[in-house]
Amino acid sequence: MVTVTSFKCGGFAMGISTNHTTFDGLSFKTFLDNLASLLSEKPLSTPPCNDRTLLKARSPPRVTFPHHELVKIQDSETTTTVFEATSEHLDFNIFKISSQQILRLKEKASESISSTGCVRATGFNVVTALVWRCKALSFVEEEDLEKESTILYAVDIRGRLNPQLPSSYTGNAVLTAYAKAKRKALLEEPFGRIVEMVGEGGNRITDEYARSAIDWGEMYKGFPHGEVLVSSWWKLGFAEVEYPWGKPKYCCPVVYHRKDIVLLFPDIGGDSKGVYVLAALPSKEMAKFQNWFEDTLS
């Protein structure tokens, strides 16, 4: 569904709503590029691959890994709230992280990341580690430190499968990676160790792990399950689409009332390597989140 709002200045805003089973972020970018080509009366820029059988479950399905990031629908003892909208009042805040601050986070992480490991202090890993630490500690009382916190984030599996999916695969080709730790560890461990845990979550998703997760979904029809989900629009490139009337001035997700989803999107001011972090939390939790955010950046 597309809506267009025109302004007296001559500009306009496009609002687009779609279902995640139809597109993930990368294939939605392909859709927009193709839409722009059609509007310019040109051939499709990237003919889409719509063969959904490439991600079908095996027959018979085989779950070969534990999937702590997923919860069965029929498991009445476990509830998942990460996708649920809340009716409580939330404070919204956008935290800017400049490219220089990201560089300092990478340097801070590198001080304690194992030199023998296979995790790099990427921009995404350090920002996600920062969000995880702040979110987990934003409502911690003394007795909560021994409780476990699980962070979820999407990983594109196109290049992780064997054989790989075509880069033009147009569908939902992301799986939910996770990292988990006691909140006490997120309080006390060096920042680099938290970055490592985030990176290890992404590295966990191999071809066999992805097939196991797909088969798990076929068998149990469950949901991603965790304390916080990081959803990144940071480097998807929606604002780089060349429409007949030019590129968008800006492109970002619409705010929604979910306190356990933290959004990342490109810097509004033009810092191409900077990022904005959108969080929505109850007032007391937001104050703590902001304190831990500033503490970790310092």
UniProtKB/TrEMBL annotation:
| Molecular function per GO | acyltransferase activity, transferring groups other than amino-acyl groups
Q: Which family does it belong to?
A: Belongs to the plant acyltransferase family.
**Xref: InterPro entries:** CAT-like_dom_sf, Plant_Fungal_Acyltransferase
Q: What is this protein called?
A: BnaA07g25290D protein
Q: Name one Pfam family in it.
A: Transferase
